[in-house]
């Protein structure tokens, strides 16, 4: 089963080469790397070109970008990876091992947050535990899924926020996720920039509001003007 990694980007010129360089060993093993860029103004697509199998230019919107990447992918297994998240060196082996059993159609990795704050360990542990208890994964955990299952549930919903939460809920109907103990490492720079507790409270507030029926569009509009002070990690 060939593995394809889909990476949505927008103005990631400072980080994209490092992100893709970390994937070259997987690429040499036959893993397909697809970058889906939202027409960045900083040359992200050009920098990504030599280090990816394919670079696609689309309209901005992470869900839309990841769906476009999935449609172009040749792999039977898809991994959706944020540009500021690093996979473990043996990610392909770990995914193939758990998926070849045929008992799982999707899953995610445990996460570790890289940064100066000691509390990042506690935050990461709580994210991993919550994911195990609820069966819900977030984008920072590098979700992976069988291609046919992804399209069977309609892919990512075209939402400005919570697209990973909704996709998880859809995939749960097909079965529980494979929760890999291998860890991806995601950058804590946004947590450090916006404040740890402020970021945690904002993330929980957004999820609670969404759970109680407020639309993702309304939630995105709520903090759009505050994204430089309290946007959640990875928000675009």
TrEMBL record:
The lineage of its organism: Bacteria, Pseudomonadati, Pseudomonadota, Betaproteobacteria, Burkholderiales. The keyword ATP-binding does not apply. InterPro entries: Glyco_trans_2-like, Nucleotide-diphossugar_trans, Trfase_2_rSAM/seldom_assoc. SUPFAM superfamilies: Nucleotide-diphospho-sugar transferases. CDD domains: GT_2_like_a. It is found in: Cell membrane. Keywords: Cell membrane, Glycosyltransferase, Membrane, Transferase. This is Glycosyltransferase 2-like domain-containing protein. Residues 4-129 form the Glycosyltransferase 2-like domain. It comes from Cupriavidus laharis. It comes from the Bacteria. Its main location: membrane.
């Amino acid at each position: 089963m060939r593995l394809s990694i889909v990476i949505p980007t927008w103005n990631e010129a400072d980080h994209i080469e490092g992100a893709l360089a970390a994937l070259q060993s997987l690429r040499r093993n036959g893993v397909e790397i697809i970058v889906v860029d939202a027409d960045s103004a900083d040359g992200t697509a050009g920098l990504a070109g030599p280090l990816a199998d394919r670079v696609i230019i689309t309209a901005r919107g992470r869900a839309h970008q990841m769906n476009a990447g999935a449609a172009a992918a040749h792999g039977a297994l898809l991994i959706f990876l944020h540009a500021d998240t690093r996979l473990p060196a043996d990610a392909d082996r770990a995914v193939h091992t758990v998926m070849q059993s045929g008992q799982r159609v999707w899953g995610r990795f445990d996460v570790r947050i890289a940064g100066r704050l000691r509390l990042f360990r506690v935050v990461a542990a709580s994210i991993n535990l919550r994911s195990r208890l609820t069966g819900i994964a977030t984008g920072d955990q590098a979700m992976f899924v069988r291609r046919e299952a992804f399209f069977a549930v309609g892919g990512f919903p075209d939402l400005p926020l919570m697209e990973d939460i909704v996709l998880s809920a859809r995939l749960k109907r097909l079965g529980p996720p494979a929760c890999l103990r291998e860890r991806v490492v995601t950058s804590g720079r946004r947590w450090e920039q916006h404040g740890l507790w402020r970021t945690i409270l904002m993330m929980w507030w957004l999820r609670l509001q969404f759970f109680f029926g407020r639309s993702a569009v309304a939630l995105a509009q709520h903090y759009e003007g505050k994204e430089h002070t309290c946007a959640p990690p990875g928000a675009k």
